[in-house]
Amino acid sequence: MAISTKKPGAGEDLTAGVLCDARGERVSLETILMSNLHVVTGAFGYSGKYIARGLLARGCEVATLTNSPDRPNEFGGRIRVAPLAFADRAALVASLEGATVLYNTYWVRFDHRDFTHAAAVKNTQELFAAAKAAGVERIVHVSITNPSPESKLPYFAGKARLEAALRETGIPHSILRPAVLFGGEDILINNIAWSLRRMPVFGLFGGGNHGLRPIHVEDFAALAIAEGQAEGCRTVDAVGPESFTLRELVATLGQIIGKPRPMMSVPPALGLLAGRLVGLLKRDVFLTKEEITALMAGLLESKAPATGTIRLSEWAKQNKETLGREYASEMRRRRKRDVAYRDEATGRP
Q1: What distance in Å separates the CA atoms of residue 109 and residue 116, rounded to the nearest whole number?
Q2: Which residues lie below 8 Å from residue 338, measured CB to CB, with a gap of 6+?
Q3: Range of the domain at 147
Q4: pTM of this prediction?
Q5: Facing residues of 266 across strands?
Q6: Distance from C-alpha of 335 to C-alpha of 333, rounded to nearest angstrom
Q7: Is residue 9 part of a domain?
Q8: Which has the least CB within 10 A, 104, 161, 284, 339?
Q9: Any idea what the CATH number is for the domain that residue 35 is in?
Q10: Per-residue DSSP letter, 112
């Protein structure tokens, strides 16, 4: 967009020029900021899809870097697609040239023989280096609540390392720290509801009195887009308006979907064993030891002000007929990269 300034008219601020487009029409500063190229990693996945959708709705030019270029998606060719070419610095730089903002959602949930946190850290460092070489003006990076370089949990330690690496680039940035995302194609909340629909008793690790602070994926995407227009370097806990203990969350979901279940405290090892049995049944990773440890250590809780407005309890009521009807598989999404994510809450593809 070609922008020029002209002298203000009568009654206008005499200390600044008026921003105009090539036709002489006035444009807002927001329009200018949003008119440049915005690059989203994983726009055919979960949170990246909602960020890309929001950017397009605002009239932005959008590109995605993805490991799943053949996955069906809703965008119909409206966004430019390039691979996440971590092993090819020149290609990665080229895919980011001209970008004003990079929204990085790339990460892995757990270690697996096909992917690891260590590899994800290295890959993301490559992405940051390429962004700097390409002249990207701002990065919005997705982290996690309560990361720490001293953590014995690879997820939280890796996220802390990447926050430090991003700061070292000198690129202005926003670090978003969500605990749990819900809505749309989420896995955790959906699969808790799935378990409630099928199991007569729900086991809680250590009593289930450990907190978590979920945020709706649309609220999260709106926050990411807003931070793409911010200035300087910021770190924000991305959390919703409701806080739950695991016991409260399970009770709330059970009541809403009409499947209240007795809850019993179980040792973490027994809960992990049960999760592995579900994983074997579904050819998936239902739950990990690290996730249990993080929850019990309070790492998914935050006392920060809410950055979202959608309440999980209200959203669950709106989707109570379909929430948890279908199992949401992490590994299916990774194995079948030519298949669209399924919205398990609403039944939409």
Answers
A1: 9
A2: 68, 70, 71, 72
A3: 20-335
A4: 0.89
A5: 205
A6: 6
A7: no
A8: 339
A9: 3.40.50.720
A10: B
